[in-house]
Amino acid sequence: AVSIRVRDFLGIARREIADVHALGRTPILVGGTGLYLRTLLDGIAPVPAIEADVRARVRAAPADENRTKLESLDPAAAARLNRGDTARINRALEVILSTGRTLAEWQRQREGGIGGKVELKPLILLPPRRWLYARCDDRFAHMVDKGAVSEVEGLLARKLNQNLPVMRAIGENEIAGDL
Fold first, then answer.
1. Is the pTM above the cut of 0.85?
2. Could you report the per-residue pLDDT of 150-170, keeping only the tens digit for each?
3. Cβ neighbours of residue 152 under 8 Å, at least 6 residues apart?
4. Long-range contact pairs involving 147-155 (C-beta distance under 8 Å, separation at least 24)
């Protein structure tokens, strides 16, 4: 699987949509997550790159320590975020430590969205649940056949911080629980 940062996706999607429009055609966007679609439509906050040492310190610290630090530096974010949502807590903390501004302040400045420049006709496809669950089961079996168990064993052997995104990848916790 290929991973792409949302900021990179925004640039690529805008170019592809413009190319399709230039041909006099209608682009059709399929799949993805709500984050990517919202960013494409509404834009993205211009948060500068997080300083590497700040990111390393936050991700190495225990989750409760990061939560406490966020409560003192950005109480509004701490109140809004669920205690178990370590990824968002870490992000909010990284942003304020690296930039001196809260994530909410940055998020009030959106740039790059195309929502006001295009005609939208959203559709939601809801397949039968039984079919969808069978597809999910097949996909998980395929992941296991292609080495997911050894990949998780390798991650666990590295004794990585549980706050890291890779340690919350889809299926990681379920496979790790059986090891």
1. no
2. 999 998 999 887 777 778 787
3. 171, 172, 175, 176, 179
4. 148/175, 149/175, 149/179, 152/176, 152/179, 153/179
